[in-house]
Write a structure and sequence with these properties.
By secondary structure, this protein is an alpha/beta fold. It contains 9 helices and 10 strands. Strand 5, helix 5 and strand 6 form a beta-alpha-beta unit. This is Sugar phosphate isomerase/epimerase. It comes from Streptomyces cadmiisoli.
């Protein structure tokens, strides 16, 4: 395994002066070959990529993973992109169960398969020089009480955190609507149960904050700041777990990005539109100018507020984006 490369911080620069760094998730570019997706993001001016390990993009279960990872690392370097490794592929372990098996599965062998995937993702992240590895808990299995599920989650993550500590790659757990760990309160419960290990961090999804957190998205950023290791971003409406293009939901983005910049966070802020791959290049092209405009000083702005991007029109024969609704 190659040592994790580090980039020196620019001299005479404080974290709060550094601009936010934007990426786009490959789970929203699933119809593109990985090399084409990376080239597109570099051409558009993104700083990095949220790389979901999946059968179409750096398959974590196919042969020669180490050599394939080296090639991706070289390509990222050539394009000037950084990465976060994401592990939310729907059917990478089980072709019949979405996100199955999970860290909460009643079968110990099935839980071990998810643990092995996450440890493999940590090693991939180290070889890519990635900022973090993202993961989530999974939904509460039928017939399992919550206390048992929390115990399984903590026990399952222990060896993953050991791998994260050994490689210097933080594990960034995401509160996911409908999952056992679904809120910031859930993250703090896990953190306490594990003894607050240094390698355990947080993936904060801005849309999820709008969907179900009692705090505003900007306040969620401020509350989560000490543990932020990865950020996902998209628009969303209150009470509906549906990832939306910017301008289609209810989030006021300038205060959110101002709060994020004030924390000094320097990982990637990754656009997360997994149901929009049919128009992925168009959404990627529209998203970056929107985010840069929203991250600019809010006042004074002679050109007024940041307008929402124009909604892309699906080419003939392409499906429209299926809403996620209230299911995880």
């Amino acid at each position: 395994m190659s040592p994790r490369p580090t980039a020196p911080e620019p001299p005479h620069t404080t974290p709060s002066q550094l601009p936010l760094r934007f990426g786009y998730g490959t789970n929203g570019l699933a119809d593109l070959r990985l090399d084409d997706a990376l080239a597109l993001l570099a051409d558009l001016g993104y700083d990095g990529v949220g790389l979901t390990l999946d059968h179409m993009h750096l398959d974590p279960l196919a042969p020669d993973l180490a050599s394939r990872t080296r090639k991706v690392a070289q390509r990222l370097a050539e394009l000037g992109l950084t990465a976060t490794v994401e592990t939310g592929a729907r059917y990478v372990l089980d072709p019949r169960r979405k996100h199955g098996p999970s860290l909460l599965d009643p079968d110990a062998g099935d839980r071990a398969r998810r643990v092995a995937l996450l440890i493999r993702a940590v090693r991939v992240a180290a070889d890519l020089g990635a900022h973090a590895v993202h993961c989530f808990s999974g939904t509460l299995p039928a017939g399992t009480d919550e206390d048992t599920a929390w115990k399984r989650l903590a026990e399952s993550l222990a060896p993953v955190l050991d791998a994260a500590t050994a490689t210097g790659i933080p594990l960034a757990v995401e509160p996911e609507p409908g999952h056992l760990l679904g809120t910031l309160d859930g993250f703090h419960r896990l953190r306490r149960e594990l003894g607050d290990p240094e390698a355990l961090g947080l993936t904060l999804d801005i849309g999820h904050c709008q969907c179900l957190e009692p705090l505003s998205p900007a306040d969620c950023v401020r509350e989560a700041a000490p543990w932020l290791r990865h950020v996902q971003i998209e628009d969303m409406r209150r009470g509906v777990h549906e990832h939306l293009p910017f301008g289609d939901g209810e989030i006021d983005f300038p205060p959110v990005l101002e709060a994020l910049a004030a924390t000094g966070y320097q990982g990637l802020t990754v656009v997360e539109l997994p149901r929009h791959s049919h128009a992925g290049p168009e959404h990627a092209e529209r998203s970056l100018p929107f985010l840069r405009g929203a991250a600019a000083p809010a006042s004074p702005r002679p050109d007024g507020p940041v307008p929402p991007p124009a909604a892309p029109v699906a080419p003939p024969g392409e499906p429209s984006a299926a809403p996620e609704g209230r299911t995880p």
